[in-house]
Amino acid sequence: MTKTSQARSFDAAAAAYGANRPSYPPALLGAVEELAGFGLGGARVADIGAGTGLGTALLHAHGARVTAVEPGDGMAEEFRRRLPEVPLVRGDGNHLPLRSHSMDLLTYAQAWHWTDTGRSVPEARRVLRPGGALALWWNDSDPTVSWIGEQDARMRKFFGAAETPRDARVRFRATLPDGLSFDTRLLPWSRRVPLDVHLGNVGSYSDFLVADPEAVGGFLARERELLSEIFPDGVVEETYVVSLAVARH
C-alpha cells in the first residue's frame, strides 16, 4: 500500500476521527510563537493536511488568519461541517494551492510524514514570505506510562511490528527534513475521556483503517475488556507528548 493511499484511508472515517482524536495542549501555540519569532494574532497561516480541523481550530481561535489545505474528500467534508467560517482549499503538501510568498506560517499537524520532502520542502519555501516559519508537530501517546506501553505492545504484536517501540523523539528527529534548521520542543499533556472515545481514537489510526475489519473489531473488543479493569469508572486518562519543530525561513 502506498503512503498516499494509506493517508486517504482517513476519508472513510472522517467523522469518527473528528469526534475521537485528541486536539493539542494550550501551550503548543505559545511555543510555536516563541520559536517562530512572531505572534499568531493576524498572521497569515496555512494549515496543511488539515484533516477535520483539530489544529486549524486552535489557530483560528488564537486570532490567526488561517487557510486550511486538505486533499481528502471525506476529511474536507467533515472540516466544512465543523469550521464553516474558515477557508478551505483542496491540495496537499507536495502541491500547495497557494501564492508564492503569501504566508507567514505553514503548519503541519501530524501531516508532514505523509509528504514527499523532495517536493514539500521546495513548496514550503516558495509559499512562505521571507522571515516566515514552518511548524511541524506530532502528538504521540507516552509509552512510559505503564498501561499505554502495554497497549502499544499489543498493537505492535497485532500488526507484526518490532517488539521494541521506537522512541518517538528519535522518530521525530528522523522525520525532520534535511536542509532546514529546526528548533524543537517536547510538550507533555493529558486528557480524560470516556472509554468509547479512547477506543474510537485507537480505531482511527491509519494502520487499523486499512486492516481487516473483523480482526480490528476483535482487537478493540479485547482492549475494552482489559481497559475496563484498569479504568473501572469508564474514564481513561490518555497521556501524550507533542513533538514540535519550527524552522524560520
Question: How is this structure best described in words?
Answer:
The protein is an alpha/beta fold and 249 residues long. The protein has one domain: Rossmann fold (3-Layer(aba) Sandwich). It is 42% helix and 25% strand. It has 11 helices and 7 strands. Strands 3-2-1-4-5-7-6 form a 7-stranded mixed β-sheet, sandwiched between helices. The radius of gyration is 18 Å and the shape is globular. The protein starts with a helix and ends with a strand.
Condensed summary:
With 249 residues, the chain is an alpha/beta fold. 42% of the residues lie in helices and 25% in strands.
Name the overall outline. Answer: globular
End-to-end span in angstroms? 34 Å
Helix content, binned percent: 40-55%
The number of domains is 1
What secondary-structure arrangement, pairings included, does this model have?
Elements: H1 3-8, H2 14-20, H3 27-36, E1 44-48, H4 54-61, E2 65-70, H5 73-82, E3 88-90, E4 103-109, H6 117-127, E5 128-141, H7 146-159, H8 168-175, E6 182-194, H9 195-203, H10 206-209, H11 213-230, E7 235-248
Parallel strand pairs: 1-2, 1-4, 2-3, 4-5
Antiparallel strand pairs: 5-7, 6-7
Helix pairs in contact: 2-9, 9-11
Which short descriptors sum up this protein?
single chain, about 250 residues, alpha/beta, Rossmann fold, seven-stranded mixed sheet, 7 strands
